[in-house]
Amino acid sequence: MPGGPVARVTAWVAERPGLVRLLAAVVAGLLLYASFPPRTLWFLAPVGIAVLTLAVRGTRRLRGAFGVGFVGGMAFFLPLLPWTGIYVGPVPWIALSTACAVYVGLFGVLTRLIGRLAWWPLWVGAAWSLTEWGRASFPFGGFPWGKLAFGQADGWYLPFAMVGGAPLVSFAVAVTGTGLAWLAVRLLGQLRNPVAGERVSQAGEGAANSPRWTAWRPTSWYRIVAATMLVAIVPITGVILRTALPGPEDGNRPITVAAIQGSVPRLGLDFNAQRRAVLDNHVRETEELVKAVAAGQFPQPDVVVWPENSSDIDPIRNTDAYDEITQASRDIKAPILVGAVLVNDDGTTTNSVIVWNGADGPGERHDKKIIQPFGEYLPYRSFFRHFSEYADRAGYFVPGKGDGVVHVQPADGGPRVAIGVATCYEVAFDRAFEQSMRAGAQLLAVPSNNATFGKSEMTYQQLAMSRVRAVEHGRAVVVSVTTGVSAMITPDGAIQQQTQQFVPAALVAKLPLRDNTTLATRLGPAPEAFLCILAAAAAVVALIKRRRPAQP
């Protein structure tokens, strides 16, 4: 009724379109955030993309679209990344969130630009893929945290990872969201602009008083049905693909793996001030496992995985650390993958995972190749030290080389096992396991150290990444973390076992070794490159046609 609450709300919205779009962008960003672990609300991600798409699509100018997208990005990343500032203050957290939000602003520009092309939901979905690629690449090597794929470890979209990796999962989520936006545009368009009854029926009598639905054109219905099918087909395809995932035990042969979570004396940036205590904790937990194996509580492990930074004392240069690790490996009767900080002759350091072979000592190693800016090293140190008193606490790590694979001789005496390693921050990058898979990795390991991020959601977000990588490459994944959450993940992305945070623990599981490769592994970065080219081509076409009238 005129003057009723609905009419007043409608009038208020009509008078403040800019404010409404900004509020919608905030809602969209919060929906995206809510879709990420430790919550399992994965289905909110396409809804968030739909709301954001509708918000930026209604802007008049490209700069307005950037602003709306940027606001949505801030609403997404600020609550997603507070762990980056737990011990160093809000400046790094806000700066990183702002940098990430710029890419969501660019998504807004692309959406406004190509959102008038025919079948625009496909091109806008590809535009999200383009901005995710950009954010994962620039600056300082990029920051992939917050990819839509990493919120889908419990969702229907996860199986897309075995076809096109994390980029295809993100695209599937995004295109479902843009399809929802397309459907909303069509339905609202019909409600706002019904065709006169006489266009539908030439009978004339009673046409003017026909119900509104009798005025809807069949051609519009076709488009609504097409939008509905797009929205439904993508997630349903993910459900169907799940049947093609390997079983938890499918493989060439099983191997018994142990993951040690020794914990640390205290949390914070100075967690490793008692470096010997950290090493002792992991040795002690390994010796506890030795007793449990002797008592028949656990099977004899073929290999043991310690977390990143489990020995911040260089065990190659330090005799005490060398002897302690050697004794632990001899007692457990298996090689140990030791996360260690190695000091180079030039004063730099290397974040390494070393295969420690009992009395034979150190063998092959993986030196972390993708190192964390502003943490493991500080770019432009003389400049950024002016912005934070913690700047000089950033390390002097240098990236390693190699193919990311280490080989271990199982305790049972079988053939050597190739283990692909991505250390902590590396697992967020699509390229982290590409070389190791090409080098024949049969099992994947993600040693990590989350002590510098406190009791935050970070560890759960990272665990979800490992689950995506398991499906992407069809490999079991061992996640070993100093403070948790450590986990054993099967090739279908399921968590077989996991620890609690901040509790010393050991996990032992029989995991399959696999040689088969997924389509995603064989294609590598090709799916993401195709989506980026698709989005760029759509933008070029839109720029050419910009002066011509376009239909929504």
Q: Biggest sheet: strands, sense, closure?
A: 6 strands, mixed
Instruction: Categorize the overall geometry.
Output: globular
**Mean of all residue-level pLDDT scores:** 89
Spell the H/E element sequence.
Answer: HHHHHHHHHEHEHEEEHEEHEHEEEEHH
Q: Please, how many helices?
A: 16
Number of strands: 12
Short recap of the structure:
By secondary structure, this protein is an alpha/beta fold.
Describe the protein's architecture and organization.
This protein is of the alpha/beta class. It has 16 helices and twelve strands. The protein has helices at 5-15, 17-34, 44-57, 62-80, 90-114, 120-135, 161-192, 197-200, 218-241, 275-294, 319-332, 381-384, 434-438, 458-473, 519-523, 526-544; strands spanning 253-261, 303-305, 336-343, 349-356, 362-367, 405-408, 417-421, 443-448, 477-481, 487-489, 495-498, 505-513. Helix 7 (161-192) runs antiparallel to helix 9. The longest helix is centred in the N-terminal third of the chain and has 32 residues, at 161-192. Mean pLDDT is 89; it is low at 195-216.
Secondary structure: elements and pairs:
Elements (H helix, E strand, L loop, with lengths): L4 H11 L1 H18 L9 H14 L4 H19 L9 H25 L5 H16 L25 H32 L4 H4 L17 H24 L11 E9 L13 H20 L8 E3 L13 H14 L3 E8 L5 E8 L5 E6 L13 H4 L20 E4 L8 E5 L12 H5 L4 E6 L9 H16 L3 E5 L5 E3 L5 E4 L6 E9 L5 H5 L2 H19 L8
Parallel strand pairs: 1-2, 2-3, 7-8, 8-9
Antiparallel strand pairs: 1-12, 3-4, 4-5, 6-7, 9-10, 10-11
Descriptive keywords:
552 residues, alpha/beta, 6-stranded mixed sheet, 16 helices, 12 strands
